[in-house]
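Sequence in, structure out. Go.
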Amino acid sequence: CQPRTAACTSTSEPSEPESPGPDASPAAEQLAVPFTDCGDACEGEIKGARYRILLPDEWNGTLLLYSHGYRNPIALGDEGTDSRAEPSPGYNQGGVPLARALLEQGYALAGSGWASNGWAVSDGVRANAELHDFFSEHVAQPDRVLLWGDSLGGLVTMETAEAHPEWVSGAAPL
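Output:
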């Protein structure tokens, strides 16, 4: 893994950062927070829960940790149960434009598929904590962690925020 900032990506050698132009504001100069690209480890499994991390080119220091809604624990037809990791709402159903827009704003995105489906609140809270720890160890320590989730994921979002006030900066249970 290579450190990444605005002037360094995992696919190239680090170079000297470019000087900001005369119209650049001090806030723009502070936008890029160094991080390590997790490469192939940006997708995987932690204790039975599949996860996915999406990283921007220039990170603003904020990790958005998403919790998906209720998923049926019973396999229907040939499809089986859905255990895919989802880093933003609708990502697995083609909702990539939302993720792309957030990445363009400098947010890092992460989400888990949890270890089980159904009313799996405790699995969701555990998966969020483990994914936060993985991100902090393998990518960077976030300046802010904002939790968000819809439906059952909203409850998981709230429960995670209550269980981990030491690293949760804000929560939006939807």
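Check: The mean pLDDT is 84. The radius of gyration is 17 Å.
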